[in-house]
Each structure stands twice: as C-alpha cells, then as structure tokens.
Amino acid sequence: MANDEAAESPRGPRRRAAGDAEPPPRAARRGAARPTMRDVAAKAGVGIKSVSRVVNGEYVRPETERVIVAAIAELGFSRNDSAAMLRQGLSASVGLVLEDIAEPFQSTLTRAVEAVTLANGSILMTASSGEDPAREHKVVRAFSARRVDGLIIVPAAHSQRYLLPDIQAGVATVFVDRPAHGIDADTILADNAGGARDGVAHLTGFGHRRIGFIGDIAEIFTATERLRGYTEALAGAGIAADPALVEMERPTDDTVGAAVARMLSAADPPTAFFTGNSRITMMFLRAVRLRGGARPALVAFDDFELADMLTPGITVVAQDAASMGRTAAELLFRRIGGDDGPTQRIHLSTRFIPRGSGEIPP
Amino acid sequence: MANDEAAESPRGPRRRAAGDAEPPPRAARRGAARPTMRDVAAKAGVGIKSVSRVVNGEYVRPETERVIVAAIAELGFSRNDSAAMLRQGLSASVGLVLEDIAEPFQSTLTRAVEAVTLANGSILMTASSGEDPAREHKVVRAFSARRVDGLIIVPAAHSQRYLLPDIQAGVATVFVDRPAHGIDADTILADNAGGARDGVAHLTGFGHRRIGFIGDIAEIFTATERLRGYTEALAGAGIAADPALVEMERPTDDTVGAAVARMLSAADPPTAFFTGNSRITMMFLRAVRLRGGARPALVAFDDFELADMLTPGITVVAQDAASMGRTAAELLFRRIGGDDGPTQRIHLSTRFIPRGSGEIPP
DNA sequence: TTGAAAGCGGTACCAC
DNA sequence: GTGGTACCGCTTTCAA
Predict the structure, then answer these.
(1) Would you state the pLDDT for residue A294?
(2) Taking 80 as the threshold, does the pLDDT of residue B43 lie above it?
C-alpha cells in the first residue's frame, strides 16, 4: 500500500547529486536516465520482484501482469542485461583475438565464430593484435576483466602463459590457426605441413627440381610448418634442399620482390615457386609481373578470390577458414558448457586445387 | 583489527548453495571462484576501499600499498570491470552491426572501427545481420540491453525506428554505408551516385553509347544511388536510358550470368558494363570468361585485391572503407563524449582508378 | 502469488 | 590516509 501514490521515481535524485556544473567526460548525452525495474514497480504499484518475474517470463497473476506490462511499455523499460549477468555470475559473451580482422582468412573465420556465438545466445567481442604480443596481452586482459565466458585466440608468436590464471579461473580458451606457447590448451590447426607437402610434391611430380619457397618469419608457427612440408616433399623426391631457394622474412612487396629477383637471376634458377600464404602470393604475383618474362610454375598456400580468374589460374592448397572458426567456436561452447575432457588438438585437412599455375612444366 | 585473522574468504559458500547435484548448463568449469576485492582486503587486513584505491592508482600509504599489492598477486586478483562499469553507469563498449563481416569492404571497415574503439579505451562487439531486418533488430537489442555506449550500424533495408528509445536514452548511433530509414541520425556515406557518374562518364567519354548496368536489388540504398549516377551520366552524355541494359536483382552467378548473356546477345548489345559492387564484379568476370569472345569494357564500383593483376586490369571507382570506418567511429566517440550538435550526414568521395578495362573503346 | 531484503563486485561519499 | 556504508540494477532467498 505504501506505493499507491508517488508513482514517479521513489528515489531521490539519481546520478550527479552534487556539483552539477560541468558535463562529465562521458555519458553526457544520457538523456532521461533509463528506467529501472524499480521505476516500473513503482509505476505499476507492485514489488520489484514481480517486475522481474514478468520480464523473465515467470508466472504472475494475469491481472498483475497486465499492469506491469503496461508500465513497462509506458516507461520504455528494457532490462539491463549486464546487471543481470553480474548477479548471475556470467557474461554470455566471448572474446575473439585475431591478428588482423581485415585479412580474408581471418574475417571468414570471424564470421563463422560469430554465427556459432550468436546461436549460443552469446555476444562476440573482437580485437586485433596486429601480431604484437603486448597488444594481444592487453586486449585479452580487457576481455578477461569483462569476465568473458571464453576466448578464441590466434596467438602472436610468444608465450601465452599470462593466460594461466584466467584459464584456471574457468575461462574457456581455444587457440586457432597457431598453437599457444607455454600452455596446454585446446587448439584448432590446419594441416599446414601436410598441405604444403602435397603442394610441393605436386610440383616435383611435374619434374621440378628447383623450387623456391617464399614464407613468413620463422617465429610464425604456420610459416615454419609449411616450410617443413616443403622440405619433406623435397626429401621425398630425393631433392637436396638449397637454402638459397628459401626466403623467410617479414614479407613486403620489397622483400618478396628482392627474393624473387635474386633467385631467378641466380646461376641455377628455380623453375617453380611455393608461396606461404595469400598475402605473400599477392606480392609474388606482383613481383613476377613487374619482372616480366616467362612465369615460373606456382603453387600457393591459401585460396583467394579470383585465383581462378588469373591467367593461368593459381593452383592452391586451400584451408577452410569457416570450418576452422566453426570448429573452434563449437569446441569453446562445449567447454563453456562444462566439458572438461582432455585438451584437444584438432587438425583440419587442406584441399588441393589445381588451376593451371601448378601444372606448368619446368 | 577485526580482520587480522580469517585470511581466507570470509564469506560462506558462494554460488550453488543448494541442490548441488547436476552441473548447471553454463559456468560449470568455473574453478575456484574468482577472488574479489573483499578477499584481497581480508588477506591484506585492510579496508576494501583501500584495495579499490590501489587498483585504481590512487594514493595510499606506501606500506599499505605493499601489503595490498602482495595480496593481489598472491590471490591472482583482477578487477571485474563489468561490476565497476555497472556502478559507474557506463559500459566502455560499442556495438558494430554489419551485413557480413567476411565481405572485404566491411572487414576493412571493421578494422578501422576497432582501432578507434580500442584507442578510446572501449571494447568492440560485432554481429552480422546477413541483410535480415529481424536479425539486425535482434542483435541491436542484445547490444542495447548490454548498455553499449554507442552503435555503428550498416542498416538492412527497412525501418530503424525501433532504435528511437535507445537513441533517446542516450545511446550514440552512427549509420555507415547506408542511411537509416525512418529516423534522423548521423550517417557516413560514400558518394555513390557521384562515383558511379564519374565511372560511367569515363565510358561515355571513350565513345560508349550502350552501357550495361548490373546492380543489386533496388531496396539497397547504395544500389539505387549507383544506378542514379549511371542514369545521370548517360543523361549528361545525351544518351537515352534503355531499361533492357539495367539489371537490378539479388546477384548470384546465375542471375548475373543470365543478364550478361541476355544483354550481349541482344540486337544492339552493350559495348561496356558498369558493375555495382565487388561481389557483382566477380560474378561478372566469371560470366564473361565463361562466355568467351571479346571482352566488353568494364568499370566497377569498389576496388578489390588483384584488380590490377587481371588482364586487362580492372578500372574501378574505389571507396575508402578504412576511412569510412574511422570517420564513423570518431564521430561516434565525439557523440559519446557529449557532442550533441546537429545530426551529420558525411559523404566520403570516391576515387577513380583507371587500369585498362575501362579504357577499351567500343 | 508476492515482495522485502540480501546479495553480485565494485565505486562514491563522507565521516573518522 | 583510511574505511564504513549506501548504492549501481538485477536476481535470489525466504517469509508472509
């Protein structure tokens, strides 16, 4: 009965009670402060818990419900989920840390993760590390401080030990594309070595004996794995590896161009190339074009749009970014759901797609 | 003094006090419940507020600080930001709603938004609507319920009126790439009509009089605007528009292929084409390639990787996704910071890049 | 069925 | 300098 009158907010002035002078740095636009369950309860003349019940679809007397629903509509109330989750001790959100979300492989992976996340009723937070360990650490800390239920990470090349406390505290964590360093955790990887081996074997099968390899820096797991596949394929064909045919630098148009020029103008030039990822492939194509002359055979790791439209089409070892993202996210939610089975390391196979560039004879 | 002993958590059993039987659907892995400031305060034998001070870098006596820092380290405490933000009435997070994050234009835009967001100390949440209004509405509601400080939206084609309550409640909102329907809000757009006009004028300048236009469905703002530019350019060159040369369907390889075939096999076939976005351009290129024969001239809206590597290179009207994202995010944070100036509609100019395909004579 | 009160994990205000 | 206490907005417990 105490609530029959005083339909307006029963509380005293909220927010900024004192020193109302200058606008605060943030939250200045905050128009009429958002109505809360208390406001709704007051307006409806019921207890706050009944409002909560209605909002959560629990049972209340139909009549009471009517009044509350009306008050909710009138006030334009919408529950503050963050408050609810705080009380419940969960966040219904997961964080995704990539190296660069604008990179086709990773944005495709993101879409898949996003789909699974939303399907599980969670929200996805994303951040790019730019291959910078400090930045990775920083964004992971930010996610962790928000108490995300889980993390999916494309780790930069260094230790992920800083994650131990979080993992121990129950934050599900899955690594994608590259394994974590220094900790044991679920990991989804492409079959980098196998894919590269197949690709290079394809070239040796066509009779190539001198094959240039252009990869990324050795610190990057995938780069090293793909180099391993290359080396194994050569060994399998009884070809001695020649260090002069291997380039493992941070790729730029300049470094790739220089490497290509160096190899091709050597005494015993390669008749074919294997490029370590799509970014490198782009640079390689530009370099070869600029150079002119006959184009060497090429097999590239990573498929890319228009690979089939070039002349010749580019033969690739394709990895399935979407299924990598999906697999990672599904495993993550299984963990979040309570699956505490042994750590998994899942390898996704690659797909070899001949399109012409890899079928050029020596 | 009351706190000297009882160094362990002073509270009784937390969480799941009753019915401890089956694991809850979520939060099951939650190992040792995360330590709180209370735990730290207890262990350090100080008041909770002092812990808060240390965590927030405020001044406390060096000696006290030492003890607290030690306790924090020992317990592995990390502040629950969500709780802090709840109290402070803000969330330091913004939501980004796209149509498809895997699309190059949008993933590049995302990277820019992400960079600005992180620079402003906020977290970015992302979700794709898949061009589905219901889905868009749903994810926006989810973001809004989390009390994001702001929203950046690539709106699907329908009304965004549902956002009015949120905007009025102070959620900063910026639309990108397409304007919102039914509400007045900040909007960042490319100069779609102008860019298309320039592109088509380039073709008429080379003497083309029959130019095919392949766009997306008319419901999509950018599609209609680009068609407008096409029409204006024709008018400017004194060329009568021919409806038979305009295709505005939901693009698939089939529809685009059919349109191209239809136009090219007509009595008076086009000698040039203008394609409305990069996805369509890909389909167009595939269609023309399949068809064989001489390739008509082409100017495409949207730049794309390898456009310069095709033969001939593809002449494009490029829009700057990164600067669109940056501009949108910067405006958003200005709004969040309190800027309540009049609604802005910013047009970003496009850049015309001739590469060969647009310079083929009729 | 309903609601008062005690939390969730922090921060703000204000005495001590 | 430090700590008590009210409070952010919601859920949970439990008595009425």
Answers:
(1) 87
(2) yes
